[in-house]
Amino acid sequence: MSATQLPAFTSVVIVGAGPAGLTAAIVLAEAGIDHVLIDRLGEGANTSRAAVVHARTLEVLAELGLADELVAQGIKVPTFKIHDGPKTLATIGFGDLPTEFPYTLMIPQDVTEAVLLERLHRAGGTVHRPYTMTGLTDENGSVTVEYTDADGTPGTITAAYVIGADGMHSVVREQAGIGFTGDTYPASFVLADVRMSWPTPRTEVSLHLSPEGVTVVAPLPDPAQERYRVVATVDDAPEHPSRTDIQRLLDARGPGGEVRVDEVLWSSRFRVHHRVAERYRAGRVLLAGDAAHVHSPAGGQGMNTGIQDAAALAGLLAKVVAGEPDSLLDSYETVRRPIALDVVAFTDRMTRMATLRSAPARTARNTALRLLTRIPTIRTTLAHRLAELSTR
């Protein structure tokens, strides 16, 4: 189909071809439901951004025949540790989780999206790029989506339903009149992929607490075993943190020992919001992924929750389009929105706990972490929460 030829009618329009949008499209394609997936970008993700895939997400993707391919391209990390300087405060292991995937999978988002896209192609689907949605009208039992193509030529497509998977600044959510309540954390976050010498084993995701802020370091797939993801809170981070910036940060907050940052492969600065859509459905318009919820990167929950949203929603839509009652879609918000609220609350607690500044509060936190995580049931509960198995 050329850049100016979208069909006039389809059952479902999906706006946004990130991990959530691609997952929804795969589910619909496998169910034989006609759909159109559009994205405003000329190409998919070419940076790593979200780099964690949890056990529950792998279970969902296994049903689509995708888990093995992702696992083959990622790195299995079975341990999560919390440190304060050279001291280890807590160790959370995933090895005993009741799942086929007892680990965190570290894999860059661009690789995840490439695997999802190839799976969509195998199912007979595609992504139409770049198409920018400009408006929508829900009336007379259908939704009309207005868009412009790469040349700025306007067009419309009518569908029975629309999925808004177009991110935090969702045009679908805005056009549907759905509120997005919450707040923004005061600190900025540094996000970087680096090549470096790091003293912690590559079987571990490390969370480092310090008065200056929280830092997370995790291994990324790399034949030379030198590639790592660094996420850190900084009061006022530069737009594109340099090798010197990352080196200084890790020297101040890391575990000690030799840390040598050799190269910054990609870096960014961002502000973090914690918000949840007031509704997941407005008539024939439904939200998934970051269009429905955004939160702290603590625990790597965001992309995972979005993929699970999309798989659940597309499965319901396939049934409704095939003839089951439209009211079935109401269960999507009933089930998934409380999960998002819980994830936002959980990641907010983690972020606030990790960014305590006063010495007495930090001492109390560290003592509590050491004592509580010695209790097996608490370690198991935390492992379930981080792996998102509690959302089954």
Short structural description:
This protein has about 400 residues and is α+β, with helices and mostly antiparallel strands.
Got a strand count? 18
Describe the sheet with the most strands: 8 strands, mixed
Which ranges are low-confidence, i.e. pLDDT below 50, for 5 or more consecutive residues?
none
**N/C terminus separation:** 39 Å
Given the C-alpha coordinates, what overall shape results?
globular
Assigned CATH superfamily of the largest domain: FAD/NAD(P)-binding domain
Averaged pLDDT, please? 93
Tell me which CATH architecture of the largest domain applies here. 3-Layer(bba) Sandwich
| Proportion in helices | 25-40%
Percentage beta strand:
25-35%
CATH class of the largest domain: Alpha Beta
User: What do we call the CATH topology of the largest domain?
Assistant: FAD/NAD(P)-binding domain
Distinct helical segment count: 10
Largest sheet strand order = 6-5-12-13-14-11-15-18
Spatial extent as radius of gyration? 21 Å
Structural class: alpha+beta
Order of helices and strands: EHEEHHEEEEHEEEHEEEEHEEEEHHHH
Number of domains: 2
